[in-house]
Design goal:
Blueprint: E1 2-11, E2 14-24, E3 29-33, H1 40-47, E4 55-60, E5 63-64, H2 70-80, E6 81-85, H3 96-106, H4 115-124, H5 140-152, E7 158-162, H6 170-187, E8 190-195, E9 206-211, E10 214-215
Parallel strand pairs: 3-8, 3-9, 6-7, 7-8
Antiparallel strand pairs: 1-2, 1-4, 4-5, 9-10
Pfam families: ABC_tran
Organism: Caldicellulosiruptor naganoensis
Keywords: ATP-binding, Nucleotide-binding, Transport
Length: about 220
Amino acid sequence: MIKLVNVVKSYDGYIAVNNVSLQIEAGSFTGIIGESGAGKSTLLYMIGGLLRPSSGDIFIENVNIVGLNDNELSEFRCNKIGFIFQFYNLVPGMTVRENVELPIIISNRNRKEMKKAVEELVDAVGLSEYIDRDVTTLSGGQQQRVAIARALINDPVVILADEPTGNLDSKNSNKILELLHEINVTKKKTIIMVTHSEKMLKYCDNVITLSDGRVVK
């Protein structure tokens, strides 16, 4: 379970997230929606430990990540949280395999021992025939599938997706959404997805609506 208690994030007097308290159940697929500037991505990045709140507490599996030091937070993030971004954040010049392996390297796990896991994940997202191709040769939808495989490689408990279809056409958007739904159902992963499009919420169990940094629904 994820629990936020009175979470605030401010920048030089501007309040991006304003006293948010909420709970997200383990294994759920939750959508966060709101207008541009509503605080959606800021909230997501605080849940993922990429940003620290100005005040408040964030619990993931009963661990208050706000109380962790930088090294502890980095280790927690690497082992517990998978990230999927709008612009993929893949490393150009590296293959599909090498990009999926990156979290393994960061967590100091053995690449040879994880080879099978990498290949199984790449196969699961439908890219086995491209595994040794440079990611820059792939389409946008294929690159986002690589990003999803990379997010799963360390078997995180939570997957955070920030506008994962925002850079894709409607056909590829639906494919990515269906893949995330499949991961949620079959692997029981908790998924939190930020979007500005209500069309992308059809597989969500819960929807959180933000406006001016506050939860309004």
